[in-house]
Design brief:
The complex is a heterodimer of chains A (441) and B (315). With 441 residues, chain A is an alpha/beta fold. Among the domains of chain A are: 161 residues, NADH-ubiquinone oxidoreductase 51kDa subunit (Rossmann fold); 69 residues, no CATH class. Helix content of chain A is 27%, strand content 20%. The longest helix of chain A is centred in the C-terminal third of the chain and has 19 residues. By secondary structure, chain B is mainly α. In chain B, helix 7 packs antiparallel against helix 9. The relative contact order of chain B is 0.11. Classes of the chains: A alpha/beta (441), B mainly alpha (315). At the A-B interface, strand 15, strand 16, helix 12 and helix 13 of A face helix 1 of B.
Chain lengths: 441, 315
Amino acid sequence: MAEAKTFKGGIHPPYNKELASGKAIKRAPVPAEVIIPLQQHIGAPNEALVSAGDRVEVGQKIGSSDAFVSAPVHSSVAGVVKEVVDVPNFTGNKVKSVVITTDAEQPEFAKKPGKDIDSLSADEIREIAKEAGLVGMGGAAFPTHVKLTPPKDKPVDLVIINACECEPFLTCDHRQMLEKGDDLIAGARLLKTAVGAGKVIIGIEANKMDAVDAIRSKASGLSDVEVEVLEVKYPEGAEKMLIFALTGRKVPPGKLPSEVGCLVQNVGTAIALYEAAAWGKPLYERVLTVTGPGIREPGNLLAAIGTPISDLIEACGGFVGNPVKLIMGGPMTGWAQSGTTANVVKGTSGVVVLTSDVVEMGEETDCVRCSKCIEACPMFLSPNFIVQAAKRGQWDKAEMWGALDCFECGCCSFECPAFIPHVEYVRKAKAEIAALKKKKE
Amino acid sequence: MATDNLVQTPPPHLRSKEQTAVAMRDVLIALAPVTIAALVAFTYNALFVIAVCVGSCMFFEWAVRKLRKKKVTLRDGSAAVTGLLLALLMPAQIHWLNMIIASFIAIVVIKELMGGLGRNIFNPALFGYVFIITCSGILASWTGHLGFLSAGFDGVTGATPLAFIGPGLESMGPSYGSLLFANYGGAISEVGAFWVLLGGAYLIYRKVIGWVIPTTILATVFVLSYIVGSDGLYQILAGGVMLGAFFMATDWVSSPMFTWGQVIFGLIIGVCIVLIRVFGAPTGAVAYSIIIGNCFVPLLDKVFKPKRFGEVVAA
């Protein structure tokens, strides 16, 4: 077998995938109440299409926007709108949200008569993606139809399905590949049609060889779909790293994958596109992993958007041990929560609960110049010098050292013997640099 | 409630266990072979040197942190490492006051007054050592050691191997084998380059240090020695080159951060070692060279900034 492909830099954190990788996807119970934020994506917020007292059905559009960079939201349940209010989301920011009291009886989603998905045009696929409210489901939540509209002068020849799932603990993409392989391949080919590419590569990390075999056998008759095995290394699934590992193409700083003729989409997004195209199903539920040493029965759940994470934790047997970190998303890039009130959004790939015995608690000290952050950085930046500049408020220097190129993977902080939270400094630097640029204009 | 202990810190939420204190512990482990060899060779003379240096370095660190009203950071192990490295540079027979002066210079002046661990430009142990060999008038003899050791060791009395450095002279010095395993003379760490090499290999294996700096220094000394007509192999085995290359020049804080900067840093040190040894006085050549190298670090970090991912070289 050919050597697994990879990039330069990166780290090998403890993966702990075995906690949930063997657990088949289960439907999470429908909660008594869902809270659906009107903005779950990068871009313009939606206006509510419903108000208190309105009846809503499963999959009914409840928020939309005229802006191009936006994605509508749909009701994940049948029920009655209780109110439309500002609610703190998983990052702590207040977002206008639709609160829906669910009916005791939940009807199945009425599948719309299937279209012939092979005859869809690029424009039709983009429209389907927009109407279904599709966003990148790996965590970034960028509206899919925007990604499917690359600049005219930048033809895309390759669609890459990001099936690395390089974040430790998470297994939802792995399970979906095992259980919905045909849908994934169909969705990937729709993506290919939408951007006019000639080929699809599904890139899977070598710790999911069962998924590699499953997808390879399903794609065996297809000349336009390839499966590639990637080295198990974090952040293998970062867009620029993945493109480089698979093709050797380097996306320049500040540019998008279309610059080098690539489109990267996550496994969940491709499957959701297939479901939207084949059955008219909007993105109102998603598969996520509830796992970690602090969860009694880790598993992969299909949960309605807006479900409070307390319900999901309960569905997985509740807490065990002494939980000290409750993370929305993966443990490398996710958001630590102070409680269980946050709700599932389209970009929620997991709920990870870490206990006191596995969390390294340290105190930030001065940089000891060990160079480990530099060796780990997949973007070849100098995280230590960005931090040094940020500490002194020298934002121009922070930019010179590459603050804007950082995609906050956290490799530097993982390796740092002085326990410096580089990502936090970088975020501050990015905000200050943006503010300075605005001032200049 | 099960959620009472939840903490909200920025990502990443997973961290490596390899924190500074672990690295310092690794350095102590890596120094164990040469330390044990020194104790075997110089018995309680070595023990006395090590105890005074480590003890006074730790005391000064504690005292100066208290005076600066900063958290006492003895637990990171860096003061103990500085003390042990300093001890290993000392001859077996040395006035105790020298060691205390060297410890004071290392910890108080070079480390803490520069801002503490992470901000010192020079390697503290080396600077303390250089201070006493250049400034102290009460330094004892560097040759051999006290007479009560059992006889039979190489170089119990007489000149250190460094006395034979120079074109054509090396063949009169100890054999390579004795330089590797058993030569006594000079500092207490000069009891066999092999023991130092063993520790260096451990540090590279544990990824505490990289291989670039030691390799460049050793290669430069080796090659340049032959060019100037000296014995390259003798040069890297004799004196403090091995200790300097693996334990002093690789000090995190006072070495360059980028690979090409590290190569140039190693070259500078290697060239200085040979030039000082062959054309100047051999004692302290390695220490002077590394301190000269330390001076170039800020410049090297500026010049050798790596290209960002996907960055196009400006035409």
